[in-house]
Design goal:
heterodimer; A: alpha+beta; 2 domains; 17 strands; about 30% strand; disordered N terminus; B: alpha+beta; C8orf32 fold; eight-stranded antiparallel beta sheet; five-stranded antiparallel beta sheet; disordered C terminus
């Protein structure tokens, strides 16, 4: 019983400490929606230039004290008052600023993953607001009163998988560069990093079940067979745009030979023996991109995931995402 | 962002702002510097701003050039002033150093250093002058400081044409900081003495010295500078009695009179004559003595201190020869309240009278004349009378420009030139008395003073400097003024009345009252208030202020607490209370929520998933006569809250507000709808 009690206390203490840590550092993605920056979130410290100025003021104060210079006091305190007013101005520049998550982009490993946020200035003009992620170049903007504008943060994505935006900081040293105000915001924004396409990947493998036919019939793709109702996932270049423009509705063009047996099947088991997983994923990525360029439907069979034959942006994304998160959580 | 990278190079705009800052910090110092230094420092600043970059490249390739220049300047200052590690040479060097540093400044970090140096440099002008004009000359420094900081922050983005807007923004911040500055000025603890070293400086200041030779006082009399100002507690005494006692000189070497310092305490004159009380504001003169009307009847005390405890904060003591000597040299303007009994004699103490009989070699004609004259009268007192009569009857001339006599100056003056200023008369008179065996000495100080009609106080100027004599007769030191025997109007009406026509009289010593003189007197009155209220704000004044506000004996933490509270109020006022709300909602949301609450009270609550357009439409069906208003409210709210940023946002907010205010209160709303005989609609489906 005693042990339990102590354990309970410790848990409570830790959670209390964790709560404070979260309030101070925002290490967990706890900001679910639009955040309006208020004093509880905004920190202010002097910049190096501000520290130098404060040190100078201290020296001036000592001098005025030693020589009993009333006007020396006056000058020091006037500059001090200006510095204090600048602190408030720096705070005002940040307070009331609203930041909201818009979405995360996609990237291939080795590239930059772009996250989109929206900044709203509220009723005040905002000057020199710098938004910075953990890594990558910060982005600095000015906002007119009442303005809302998107802002992109690029974060290097070296590895495939999910990549969170992580904690970002919004900061500004307006107006004098002697105070820097900043706030941490941590949105649960996560983007997907696809495997990097293998450079110099082998050509597309021959398809199963008459994939040669498929390839040959793909050559005859130019022959329009007819229209069918548009389905989500159909490739954009297959949409009958003329019909859409006429207002006749959404249709997809059917070509001779597509949708038949001539499909590309990407099977994990048919990769060369001894190839390592990452290279295999990269090769699949390269093949999927080639298939997409060639407007070739494909299916994907990797351990834990099977994607039936399909094509279009949605299908491609699903396939690349499956590769990005391989092995899937269920198979792990 | 840029912090980890090397500091960015200075842009032309930044250089221009830095130049303005440095120049405005430099120019108030001009008159206190060595000429070559003043010119060189300013020229360097101008050169950096004005010269094309290729000229500056000269120094860039020769990095040793500027340190060498600085070293040469330091040596030059050392040679001219004779010392280096003291306040004045350091100010001189700093003045030049900012110019040198500016020439070679490359990046923003150099800019930071220059800002700090310039700021400190602008403080140093107050070592020399703390007048109103000196204070005003610091204003450009503040303005340029703001501009420089802003330009260094924004880098290249700041356009040069923005300087006016920048000045406006800086002014606003300065004004916002003024309450803090004023509060700090009043409550920041002042020290009774210096933290390190002595703040006195060896710089020559005009004023009396502890020696007197022919010409020293007449030289001083040419100056209009203020020696001290006096507030009388009551009416001021007549001019002929205004003898402000200063250094007493007893030793004579034939040319020069010198003070003798002895550690003998003095005795105050009895208060048989009712003492008068007055407060002196003494300009710094770098020496220890204080001035009081003859003769002081008590020690000077702090003007605001408790009158019942005159020794609680005594600042001076009285010597055996009735001089008031401060405990430290008067390096800043000080104020003290003094009491004096207006008498022309005081009891001789038991000090050795022999030093008041000391006679140098030389001046034989004077000595012979004294012996001869003394033989003709029967008493010391009659002899003194006879000497004064002799001065009066012989053709002596009172003049500011007597001839200089190298050999036996007293003989030459008394028997040949007969032209002299007060130091000649006082010195010769004293010597004549000593030659007859009567103890006598020279007293210097000021005689007279002018009431300022604009401030009801008295100004005593250096042109009022005077010398007289006192002699020990019947156990009393008795004042005699030989100048009065020659030129009585000097004592009665001042220097301007006493000097013969055609002599160059200092402006303020002249008798006529021109409008320029009256204007300058008015300016002096303003300056005097400034000296008393601002410059003279010291430990005592601070204590009194705290007492007046009920903080007598307040502990430091209490004062700190009051200050913190004031800072908090200041911040809240400046930020507006809205900034301090814990979780802020946008203005339109607040208005919308108010509307929803009101409609809910009227019986039509908004469903959680209901949007603004749907909700207002539903409300419009319930209260048809308000349907139009409600629809507009919903429309505006949707635009404001969900729409993109809108330049007409403020206007739309106002529309939203007026729309909501136009709706009647909930009870009236329902009554109005009943009277309109509208059947309350059944619960409607949500669109």
């Amino acid at each position: 019983m005693t042990t339990l009690g102590i354990a309970g206390l410790q848990t409570q203490a830790r959670s209390w400490r964790q709560r404070v840590r979260q309030l101070v550092w925002r290490l967990a993605p706890g900001d679910l929606d639009r955040i309006v920056l208020r004093h509880s979130r905004i920190y202010i410290l002097p910049t190096p230039r501000g520290a130098a100025l404060l040190a100078t003021l201290a020296t001036m104060l000592l001098t005025a004290m030693n020589y009993a210079l009333s006007l020396g006091f006056a000058l020091t305190f006037l500059v001090g008052g200006m510095v204090a007013a600048a602190l408030l101005a720096t705070f005002r520049n940040m307070a009331g600023l609203a930041v909201a998550p818009l979405g995360a982009g996609e990237a291939f490993a080795g590239g930059d993953l772009e996250f989109n946020l929206s900044l709203a200035s509220g009723s005040r003009q905002r000057i020199g607001i710098t938004v910075a992620g953990r890594q990558g170049l910060p982005n600095s903007v000015d906002l007119a009163p009442g303005a809302t504008r998107p802002i992109a943060i690029s974060i290097p994505a070296p590895k495939r998988g999910h990549l969170g935006l992580g904690r970002i900081s919004l900061s500004s040293d307006f107006p004098f560069g002697i105070w820097r105000a900043w706030a941490y915001v941590h949105f649960p924004l996560t983007g997907t990093v696809f495997p990097a396409p293998e450079a110099g990947a082998p050509p597309l493998p021959p398809g199963h079940h008459g994939s040669y036919v498929g390839r040959s019939s793909r050559l005859a793709d130019t022959e329009l067979a007819g229209l069918r109702d548009y389905e989500r996932g159909d490739a954009q270049n297959r949409i009958a745009w003329k019909a859409v423009a006429r207002g006749a509705g959404w249709y997809s063009k059917q070509f001779e030979g597509t949708g038949g047996g001539g499909v590309l099947e990407l099977h994990w088991v048919e990769l060369p023996v001894g190839i390592d997983t990452e290279t295999g994923l990269s090769r699949f990525t390269a093949w999927i991109l080639s298939a997409e360029r060639a407007a070739l439907p494909f299916s994907l069979h990797i351990p834990g995931t099977v994607l039936r034959t399909g094509q279009g942006a949605g299908h491609r994304r699903a396939a690349l995402t499956a590769l990005a998160v391989f092995p899937p959580a269920s198979a792990r | 962002m840029i912090r980890r990278h090397p500091s960015p190079p200075l842009t032309p705009v930044q250089v221009a702002w830095l130049g303005a800052l440095l120049a405005s910090a430099q120019w108030p110092l001009w008159s206190h510097l060595l000429i070559w230094n003043a010119v060189a420092g300013a020229a360097l600043v101008v050169a950096r701003v004005a010269l094309p970059p290729k000229w500056r490249a000269l120094t860039g390739h020769r990095r040793w050039l500027l340190p060498l220049l600085a070293l040469a300047a330091a040596l030059g200052i050392r040679t001219e002033l004779g010392y280096f590690l003291a306040r004045d040479p350091c100010v001189q060097f700093l003045y030049l150093l900012v110019g040198i540093k500016f020439i070679e400044a490359r990046d923003a970090r150099d800019g930071t250093l220059l800002i700090c140096l310039a700021l400190f440099l602008s403080l140093t002008q107050f070592f020399y002058l703390q007048t109103i004009t000196a204070a005003l000359s610091a204003v450009p420094v503040l303005l340029a400081l703001g501009g420089t900081l802003a330009s260094l922050r924004s880098g290249i983005a700041a356009a040069a044409s923005d300087w006016r807007a920048q000045l406006g923004a800086t002014t606003r911040l300065i004004l916002q900081g003024v309450p803090i500055a004023a509060l700090l000025f009043l409550i920041f603890p002042r020290l009774a003495g210096p933290l390190w070293g002595s703040p006195t400086e060896t710089g020559a200041r005009s004023g009396l010295s502890d020696s007197m030779r022919p010409g020293s006082i007449s030289e001083l009399s040419l100056s209009d500078a203020v020696a001290f100002r006096v507030d009388f507690n009551g009416s001021p005494p007549p001019q002929a009695q205004r003898y402000w006692r200063g250094p007493v000189l007893s030793r004579f070497d034939g040319h020069e009179w010198r003070a003798v310092y002895k550690l003998l305490p003095g005795r105050f004159v009895s208060r048989q004559v009712r003492p008068i009380e007055y407060t002196v504001t003494l300009e710094p003169h770098g020496k220890a003595w204080l001035f009081a009307l003859e003769h002081p009847s008590g020690l000077p005390r702090s003007p605001t201190g408790d009158p019942l405890a005159p020794t609680s904060n005594d600042i001076a003591y009285l010597t055996y020869d009735q001089q008031l000597v401060a405990k430290a040299a008067v390096a800043q303007a000080i104020r003290y309240t003094q009491r004096s009994s207006l008498r022309d004699s005081y009891p001789g103490t038991d000090d050795n009278p022999r030093e008041s009989l000391q006679l140098p070699l030389g001046n034989p004609r004077t000595l012979a004349f004294a012996k001869e004259l003394r033989g003709r009268v029967d008493s010391d007192r009659a002899y003194v009378r006879a000497v004064l009569d002799w001065f009066h009857n012989e053709p002596f001339v009172y003049t500011l420009s007597p001839p200089l006599i190298e050999q036996e100056p007293v003989d030459g003056f008394l028997f040949d030139s007969r032209r002299g200023f007060c130091e000649h008369y006082a010195g010769a008179f004293t010597l004549l008395l000593r030659a007859a065996g009567i103890p006598a000495r020279v007293v210097t100080g000021y005689q007279g003073g002018e009431m300022n009609p604009d401030g009801d106080y008295m100004i005593v100027r250096q042109s009022d400097a005077h010398a007289w004599a006192e002699t020990l007769l019947d156990g009393q030191w008795q004042r005699f003024d030989p100048t009065a025997a020659v030129a009585p109007s000097r004592i009665e009406r001042g220097l301007g009345a006493a000097l013969p026509a055609g002599e160059l009289v200092p402006y303020f010593a002249r008798l006529e009252m021109t409008w320029i003189k009256s204007l300058r007197l008015r300016w002096d009155a303003v300056n005097y208030q400034w000296q008393r209220g601002v410059v003279g704000f010291n430990l005592e004044r601070q204590r009194d202020l705290l007492r007046d506000f009920g903080f007598e004996g307040a502990r430091p933490w209490q004062i700190v607490a009051v200050f913190a509270g004031a800072i908090f109020i200041w911040g809240v006022l400046l930020l507006g209370a809205a900034q301090l709300r814990r979780s802020g909602v946008d203005a339109e949301v607040a208005l919308w929520n108010a509307l929803c609450r009101r409609l809910a009270r009227s019986g039509l609550a908004r469903a959680p998933e209901e949007g603004p357009l749907a909700y207002t439409r539903r409300a419009g069906r319930r209260w048809p006569q308000w349907a139009g208003v409600l629809a507009r409210i919903g429309q505006r709210y949707a635009e404001l809250h969900y729409g993109p940023g809108d330049p007409k946002r403020e206007q739309k907010l106002k529309e939203l507000k007026t729309g909501i205010e136009a709706l009647p209160r909930s009870r009236t709303l329902n009554k109005a709808s009943r009277s309109a005989n509208v059947v309350t609609a059944p619960p409607e489906t949500i669109e």
